[in-house]
Amino acid sequence: MSAEAITIGPPAWYTTTTRVLRLARANWRFVLTLATLGAGVSTVTALLLPSRYRARAAFQAESPPSQPSLSNLGLAGVLGSQLSGLQQLGPQNTALLLADLVTTDAVLRRVVNATYPWQGPSGERSATLAAIYGFGDKRPALRDFLAVNKLRRAVSVQTGIRTGIVRFAVEQRTPELALAVAETTLAALNEANIELRQQRAAAERAFTAQRTADARLTLAATESTLAVFYVRNRNLLTSPTLQMEESALRRDADMARQVFVQLQLQEAQAGLQALRNTPTISVLDPPTLPVRRSWPKRRLALVGGFLIGLALAFVRLTWRDQVASWRG
Predict the structure, then answer these.
(1) 189 with 107: CB under 8 angstroms?
(2) What is the DSSP annotation of 57-71?
(3) Domain residue spans in the chain?
């Protein structure tokens, strides 16, 4: 029985890599020239591009004020406590709400129309962010639209679901402008959130005021019915039927009284919320002046350009070797 010898050659990737390295070593001047040229072009481009600076901040939603105890109001107090709990958002939902609110037009429009220290070409020492972006000569609606969209692209937001901490960053042309825009964004966010809270509380107050008026009429009607019953039936001890009717009327009056008291309390709370202008966020990390540019990253550009030059050199050498093999 004869055995045939089986010859196993090296894998294709090893052969290709060896051939490319051999070509690179034979043409090292060409490879080094292209790599150096790529690094130089990318470095010069990074030096010519305008710098950007990023200011960062972190905040957390303020805890809502403690509500008065409703345990002594019976069934109506329990229902009122449940309804009040539904109106308040949890810390995770509040953090997500504030994170989304940062990039809304209600906040960013305040930021782009605020005034910042800026040395303009005409000698002015301050300008709005819309003017700094170059949209100052547009009509107001278009100016705000373009400026808000550009600012939205310069703002990045991250939310910690477990901790409820919201972190955001603003990128601008100068460190001073980045710091000022970040501080203005925090102030605009607080103002917009206070306004939203007051509008919601005003609507809630109007609703509970109407419900309180209806409950007052219901309470007056039940108490009047109970009083008329007592006038017509002075001796209740001898009639079980009258006693049962009295018990039902008293239950109706007690329930109407509890509902009326609860609605009055909710109306008072909504009135306080409508007037409350305390800060809605706690700033954990205030914005600081950036000390390093965030873009362009010149070291990364240098390394990237060098690698691109090497890749072009290898492609060129491989293509030239392949064409030569085809012709040969």
Answers:
(1) yes
(2) EEEEEPPPPPPPP-G
(3) 13-49+307-328, 50-295
Predicted pLDDT of residue 85: 44
- pLDDT 10s digits, 71-106: 454 444 544 544 444 345 555 568 888 999 999 999
CB–CB of 253/226 below 8 Å?
yes
Q: Quick check: helix, strand or coil at residue 55? A: strand
Tens of pLDDT, residue by residue over 178-188, are: 999 999 999 99
203: Cβ contacts below 8 Å, ≥ 6 apart: none
190, pLDDT greater than 70: yes
Per-residue pLDDT reduced to its tens digit, 108-167: 999 999 999 888 777 778 899 999 999 988 999 999 999 999 999 999 999 988 888 999
Task: Tell me the backbone φ, ψ of residue 5, rounded to 5 degrees.
Answer: -75, 130
Report residue 96 as tokens: 């997500």
Task: Characterise 123 by phi-psi region: left (phi > 0), alpha (psi -120 to 50), beta (else).
Answer: left
Q: At CA 243, angle to CA 239 and CA 244, rounded to 5?
A: 120
Q: Could you tell me the pTM of the whole model?
A: 0.70
DSSP symbols for 251-299: HHHHHHHHHHHHHHHHHHHHHHHHH--S-SEEEEE------SEEES-HH
Q: How far apart are CA 310 and CA 304, in angstroms?
A: 10
Spell out where the chain has E strands.
52-61, 115-117, 126-128, 155-159, 165-172, 281-285, 293-295
Q: Which fold has domain 50-295?
A: Bacterial polysaccharide co-polymerase-like (3.30.1890)
On whether the CB atoms of residues 109 and 226 are closer than 8 A, the answer is no
Cβ neighbors of 150 (< 8 A, separation 6 or more) are 133
